[in-house]
Amino acid sequence: MQKEYIHILECVGHGVWEWDPIGNRITLSPQWVSMLGYEYETFQQTKDMWMSLIHPEDLNYCLNELTSLLSGRIKHYRHQHRMLCQDGSYKWVLDQAKVVAYNPHGYPSKVVGTHTDIHELRTTVEMYKQQRK
């Protein structure tokens, strides 16, 4: 059933990710990778690679919010930020996540999330704001 949910999310344009913060392992769906123009078969699926793709101006906020999620200060992570595409451009995504499993000591052991491509929407809103000035 889990694969069916991933397929449904990908059908509506969401890239899916799963993170094990204890083992520091991340798994990205093919849609997540291709949304940014990378080849799934050759993409290095590591947390360091994932973090390196976040725009430098957005990275600290993302890291702070993920820390808040892991510590339990927030229950749902939701943030718009830019991701580096294979062609060197940046694309706006809506990143959402929540902790879905804990180890016996109460520490988060699985975080799942989605990326939604909001680049066109975000660009249109920015153009509208500029025209209104």
Automatic annotation (TrEMBL):
Presence of the UniProt keyword Transferase in the record: yes
Reaction(s) this enzyme catalyzes, per UniProt: ATP + protein L-histidine = ADP + protein N-phospho-L-histidine
Domain PAS: 1-73
NCBIfam families: sensory_box
EC number annotated for this UniProt entry: 2.7.13.3
Entry protein name: histidine kinase
InterPro entries according to UniProt: PAC, PAS, PAS-like_dom_sf, PAS_fold_3, Sensor_kinase/Photoreceptor
Pfam families in the record: PAS_3
Record's keyword terms, sorted: Kinase, Nucleotidyltransferase, Phosphoprotein, Transferase
Molecular function via GO: nucleotidyltransferase activity; protein histidine kinase activity
Listed SUPFAM superfamilies: PYP-like sensor domain (PAS domain)
